Amino acid sequence: MKKNERRLNDFNELILCLDAFLLAFRSVIGFSNFYQNVFFTYITIFIWSTVCFVILLNNYTFSQIIRIVLLFLLVFLIYYKSSLLSPFFTMLYLIAVKNTNIKKILKWNFAGIIFSTCLVILSYFYGLIDTNVMEDGSSSLGFNNPNTVAFETTIIVLYWIYFRFNKLSVPELYLFFLVVSFMYYCTKSRTGLLLNIIILLLYLCFRYSRKLKKLLKQKLYICVIIIPSCCFAGVWFCSSVALFSKLNTILSGRMIQAQFYLFEYGLHLFGAKLDKLINYQPGTPLLDMGYARLILQFGFIYFVIFFYIYFKKLQNALSENDYPLTILLFTVFLGLITENVWLTINYNFITLF
């Protein structure tokens, strides 16, 4: 029986690894200037149908079934109120990875991101796809936005450090510096540059400095509470308090964007359908800030669950001296200040941990 279960788990793991690669490919290409034909729709259908197939093959205890039912109820209420499907897809993948090697699946996702990102950038340099040039002269290198390039660069640097934490060489660190510098030169993304610098500094502190390592273990808990608190205070007071007004300027107007949607739709337990964002018209503010998108569109309950789970994961990682995972999780807390792509499994496989 155990042998059959092991074979089943290996089979499920293989399917989920393939899905992880394809999901990365689909997500990265979806952010590019490649023509989005029906082929990509078939990839999406294949990914989620095979994930559902794995879920049906798994065995569950009664308590696990109860938790799954409660999760389905939560995501249904979020969908009913906000028309969002992303929490549903995230939940499906979280259920499917039961009894699998998460790191192995993450490696396949990492491989898909590297392959797809290189494909887009090389296609741009060879003139196969166009680029978008912004008013400040920044280039998207074949993606739909310069910030997308910065995000993909951040994910690649982050995953590389995670998998090679104890083996990372000086030449690799120089390579990271060159890649990050080149991306900033092309995209002018200040937030992307700052996030990559923080990731590299965290790595150096955890790897080489005992004093800073000890300090970080004590202070990171406070940071992850202060970060969203400052974001929400900034969204509320960015029009009236000078400090938050300056912070809004540093964040390229993301706080004033969020304030528009906060005053327009308010806070709800299970989120809200942000019609002006869904049916976007030129001149309407975007909603880039991840924390604002999380609490306004996904709802207060989903925000509390999301924050609690990530906080507990970070707490466990620090107590077990798992510094590579600590850097992964803390980067999500930082990334949500400026970008909402960290919220879903499509772009953030760190959720699996």
Short description:
The protein has 353 residues and is mainly α. It is built from 15 helices and no strands.
List keywords for this structure.
353 residues; mainly alpha; 15 helices; 0% strand
Structural class: mainly alpha
User: What's the tally of helices?
Assistant: 15
SSE string, helices as H and strands as E: HHHHHHHHHHHHHHH
Could you tell me the mean pLDDT? 85
Uncertain residue ranges: none
What's the N-to-C terminus distance?
28 Å
Overall spatial form:
globular
| Number of strand segments | 0
How many strands, which pairing sense, and closed or not: the largest β-sheet?
none
What is the beta-strand fraction? under 5%
Helix content: over 70%
Radius of gyration: 20 Å
Oligomer: single chain
How would you portray this structure in words?
The structure is a single chain. With 353 residues, the protein is mostly helical. It contains 15 helices and no strands. The mean pLDDT is 85.
Topology:
Layout (H helix, E strand, L loop, with lengths): L1 H29 L7 H20 L4 H21 L3 H11 L5 H24 L20 H18 L6 H18 L2 H19 L1 H28 L4 H9 L3 H12 L9 H4 L11 H9 L1 H20 L3 H13 L18
